[in-house]
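Hey, can you fold this one?
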Amino acid sequence: MKNIIDSQDISEITSFYTYGTWRFQKGWKPLQIVDAEGCHFTDANGKTYLDFSSQLMCVNLGHKNKAIIDAIEKQAKKLSYVAPGFTTDVRAELSKLLVEILPDGLDKFFFTTSGTEANEAAIKIAKMYTGKSKIIARYRSYHGSTMGSIAATGDPRRWSAEPSGKISAVIFAPEVNCYDCPINHTYPTCEIACVEYIEHMIENESDVAAIIIEPVVGTNGVLIPPKEYLPRLRKICDDNNVLLIADEVMSGWCRTGKWFAVDNWNVIPDILVTAKGITNAAIPLGLCATSRNIANYFDDHFFSHGHTYEAHPLTLAPAIAAINEMKRLNLNDRANKIGKFLGEKLSELKSKHISVGDVRGIGLFWCVELVKNQITKEPFNSKLDKVSGKQLLVDKVAGEMMKNGVFIQPWLSHFVIAPPLIISEEEILVGIKALDNALTIADNEIKS
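Sure. Predicted structure:
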């Protein structure tokens, strides 16, 4: 084994000894990254890439933000860890900052080390608070990789966890998808049947504790609800004593031009979950924020949840720095302004390439969806293609972009385009040019 280590480079050592996530392991040779700054990162050969998706849609402030680095360094020297049964100044300071920017009334917090764990906490809290067992989730969703959160995930990453890993009390509703509605294929206008069906589900199910949604769906296609959707869902939940959980792991932290996506519709969930951009992904931190009504329940009822790294001081300090940086840079306004520019350039690609079925976005959160036919909206690949290991067309397009120095996040038949919120118009044009050139691969697939 020692000879293998001595004779192979870092990429080969990594693939031999460690797992690559959400993939077949055979043939995986990850690219070694040695540096990152601003909107770019650099590989071991010195080649620099534009980060057109903020890695996993999480480096909202760009790489190597000095304020965040300084906060981590300062906290590490001051107090790197204390058990969650104690408290720290950063725990109190971050809590006060969160109350200022979260939707009104969400003022009781449980800190985790990932969005997955935060969603796991939200599901458990909802069940403990309501005394009910069922959770409604939606197809084309992703809520995490642990058994509870993956059971509530609608996309094919859930499949391998079933049936033994599935929480039997999760049931799925249709997603909101105004480009290719799963219910009203023939209607010329939206009648929000997707949300009305959720009320039908609640009425015909017993024991529903909560519904968990991504207000703007992330990895599964940046699906943006019509203006009536979230207010109507809030009323349905209120009328039926069902909690509304908003998964803002990806859509939070100025990504949609508001602190949180629900703010675009003035809807307040009972529980809000977030992670990723909360520390600019420099340190793993997740947050489960609940209403005071839920908090008060646990004054006299046992709160049956916790873990070693809850409220870890080294994770909380960079969150304070990140929030202050977002305020200083006025990133909500910037996301709207630069996002409009990005949307215009992406829309130009739609009129140019026969493989582009839809371009949609909000703030600096965009999606380009590829199709074989713009009329029928038939995708190039299926969910089964993904889990069976077939090379997807979007992977070919993304690979071509990497050759030209631009990283973009592909999934099934679309790309999630969510660059750092500090990106310039000039850098956006570089990304657009690379995507424009690479889309000829998809166009030629149709023509052949």
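The domain at 31-61+330-447 is CATH 3.90.1150.10 (Aspartate Aminotransferase, domain 1). Let me know if you want another pass with a different chain boundary.
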